[in-house]
Amino acid sequence: MNNLKSKIEWINNSAIDRQKWDNCIEKCEWGKVYALSWYLDFLTENSWEALILGDYECIMPVPFRKKLGIKYAYRPNFCQQLGVFSADSNLPKTVLNDFTEELLKRFKHLHYPLNHSNNFETKPPYKLQKRTNLILNLGKPYESLYQSYSGNLKKNLKTAENAELLVKENIPTEAVISLYKNAWQSLNEIPELDYKNFKALVDFAEKQGIAKKFGVYKNDTLLASCIVLKYKNRLYYPFSAISQEGRKYAAIAFLIDNIVKDYSNSNFYFDFEGSDIKNVKSFYEKFGPEKEYYYQIDKVIPFFKLVSAIRKAIKI
Q1: Are strands 269-271 and 234-242 parallel, antiparallel or unpaired?
Q2: Among 36, 141, 291, 311, which one is most buried in terms of CB atoms within 10 A?
Q3: pLDDT of 92-105, one tens digit each?
């Protein structure tokens, strides 16, 4: 792989060969559902471009937006990891460096997530934020997985069991999103358009056999819900919520435990999708997962930071 930089091309969205792109993600050992072309198309409304090496040997998706007339790269909501992917599952450190250098040349401002297999040999000369993901290997009998649960989690599952909760599949996407908004929107404001795009994504993924929607009910009242995306050897957990009453009955713990039980003794990993939020992380850790780190590249225009702070203060 000599003189790779000259072979890395910046490709506009309309020129990306979707079939070759998705084949690369499928072949890549660490290929992520977030990097599939249709996933990005739905979330960004086709506002993503790419760095591509050769005939889609290595690829890097780049979602973008514009602010104050300046184009910048960002991490879309419900899209944890992107970065560089390789069709032969071999990614020399020099290739990762070349891709990230090209990315930084293109954008003055970005918050861009790499993936867990994008590791640098030496610390690069730009800001990297280390992020935490948690994954649970489901390749054991349920009894063995249960033994790794914390004592507090086992106690909460007893509470849920005594409450006679019921898990239902294929609940309406609108019900999952509505519960999510009630639970988290005041803490993490997500634009309505992002919810609309994610709903379209989930509805499409469900038809492809990739998405499953779960709800926990008590007396026909929805207490907790989640969406799980099944791709390659991972069960992604990008979207979940719980009501105040659901907290009383440990409904979300009950829901995750049911999924773990259903997929135990399989070759899947349950991907919790984080988290670096202390309370969320401590809850997920009760299931006995392992840590999996990835990095985010941050490059900030100071003026953008000032404008964002002003808008937040006056709630524009």
Answers
A1: parallel
A2: 36
A3: 889 999 999 999 99
